[in-house]
């Protein structure tokens, strides 16, 4: 960890009743980088992020966000954060433009409202009431509200859920622009291609524990990214993992069903999460008990 870290998390624990949702998570986010927090449903990502945002108390561990403990962060600190929650419930009786202009006034150096409307592709809907927007369009308003205050650190919790493919590409462009301006970003997403496109580093959480942490192209270790050559031999599938797939293919000639597979982030992720599945299932059992306690 370095002094240039905008987020420092050390041995973070969060319990709900007797259920441990976050079980000793540590990571840092460096200034200007985009960090993806990945993991299956219920892994503990939102709990972690909400602690960093100051919305949730932690059970134990050390947390620093822009040099401040989120439990003690004041308005000045909050004004430096941009937050796009998983679901905003934003169903206002105001137009897109009114909502953005309204929120822009809360910040000392907001972005230009027109610029933000254009960046999220809502020019044609700027005079439409938010409640009349489609789900994906409302999500774009959430993203616009997250960036209007020119945040130093932007939290994006599943930002593109409900976006059509074109809107997702447009959103990626927006994130790249924010990054180029020096914004540090914490992203959670279930779209592994999105994480691969946007992030510098990633952490994979499963069952409340960090099971992998590293550069987006290095996560899972070097072997996890080794290409696999597959082909059919007398109708039987054969495969060889190799760092020199070209040489293997040259030797094989033109066998039936020949393919070279380069494991994607998604393949590596599924392998990592699969490897910890038994532990994750144990946690899930605990989770349902905790939920019942809350429901009662
Ligand atoms: N207020 C709460 N009371 C009890 N249990 C909770 C509470 N909030 C979260 N949990 C449990 O903690 C675990 C982690 O939840 P969390 O929302 O942090 O997961 P997540 O990784 O963000 O999942 P998703 O990808 O589905 O958003 C889950 O098992 C969840 O049921």
In a few lines, what is going on in this structure?
With 296 residues, the chain is α/β, with parallel strands linked by helices. Helices cover 35% and strands 27% of the residues. Strand 1 and strand 2 form a beta hairpin.
SSE map:
Blueprint: E1 5-16, E2 19-30, E3 34-38, H1 45-53, E4 60-65, H2 75-78, E5 81-84, H3 96-104, H4 113-119, H5 135-147, E6 153-157, H6 165-180, E7 184-188, H7 192-198, E8 201-206, E9 209-215, E10 228-233, E11 236-241, H8 245-252, E12 256-261, H9 265-275, H10 277-295
Parallel strand pairs: 3-7, 3-8, 5-6, 6-7
Antiparallel strand pairs: 1-2, 1-4, 8-9, 10-11, 10-12
Bound molecules: adenosine-5'-triphosphate.
Structural description of this entry:
It is found in: Cell membrane. Keywords: Antibiotic resistance, ATP-binding, Nucleotide-binding, Transport. It is a single chain. By secondary structure, this protein is α/β, with parallel strands linked by helices. It has 2 domains: 5-219, 3-Layer(aba) Sandwich (Rossmann fold); 227-261, no CATH class. It has helices at residues 45-53, 75-78, 96-104, 113-119, 135-147, 165-180, 192-198, 245-252, 265-275, 277-295, and strands spanning 5-16, 19-30, 34-38, 60-65, 81-84, 153-157, 184-188, 201-206, 209-215, 228-233, 236-241, 256-261. The strands form 3 sheets. Strands 5-6-7-3-8-9 form a 6-stranded mixed sheet, with helices on both faces. Strands 2-1-4 form a 3-stranded antiparallel sheet. It has a 3-stranded antiparallel sheet with strand order 11-10-12, covered by helices on one side. A hairpin with a 2-residue loop joins strand 10 and strand 11. The protein is globular, with a radius of gyration of 22 Å. 35% of the residues are buried. Mean pLDDT is 87; it is low at 278-296. Bound molecules: adenosine-5'-triphosphate. Adenosine-5'-triphosphate is lined by residues 16, 19, 21, 39, 41-47, 287, 290-291, 294. Adenosine-5'-triphosphate binds at residues 16, 19, 21, 39, 41-47, 287, 290-291, 294.
């Amino acid at each position: 960890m370095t002094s240039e870290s905008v987020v420092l998390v050390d041995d973070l624990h969060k319990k709900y009743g007797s259920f441990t949702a976050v079980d000793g998570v540590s990571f840092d986010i460096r200034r200007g980088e985009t960090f993806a927090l990945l993991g299956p449903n219920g892994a503990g990502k939102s709990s972690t992020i909400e602690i960093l945002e100051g919305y949730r108390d932690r059970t134990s561990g050390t947390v620093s966000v822009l040099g401040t403990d989120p439990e003690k962060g004041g308005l000045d600190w909050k004004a430096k954060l941009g937050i796009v929650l998983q679901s905003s419930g934003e169903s206002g009786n105001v137009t897109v433009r009114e909502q953005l202009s309204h929120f822009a006034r809360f910040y000392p150096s907001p972005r230009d409202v027109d610029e933000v409307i254009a960046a999220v592709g809502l020019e044609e809907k700027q005079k439409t009431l938010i409640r009349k927007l489609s789900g994906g369009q409302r999500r774009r308003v959430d993203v616009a509200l997250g960036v209007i205050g020119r945040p130093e650190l932007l939290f994006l919790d599943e930002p593109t859920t409900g976006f059509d493919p074109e809107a997702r590409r447009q959103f990626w462009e927006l994130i790249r622009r924010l990054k180029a301006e020096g914004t540090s970003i914490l992203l959670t997403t279930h779209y592994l291609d999105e994480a691969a496109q946007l992030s510098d580093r990633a952490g994979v959480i499963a069952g409340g524990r960090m099971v992998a942490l590293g550069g987006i192209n290095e996560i899972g270790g070097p072997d996890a990214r080794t290409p696999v050559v597959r082909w059919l031999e007398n109708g039987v599938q054969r495969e060889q993992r190799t760092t020199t797939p070209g040489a293997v293919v040259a030797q094989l000639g033109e066998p039936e069903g020949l393919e070279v597979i380069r494991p994607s982030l998604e393949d590596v992720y599924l392998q990592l999460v699969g490897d910890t599945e038994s532990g994750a299932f144990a946690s899930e059992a605990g989770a349902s008990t905790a939920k019942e306690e809350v429901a009662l």
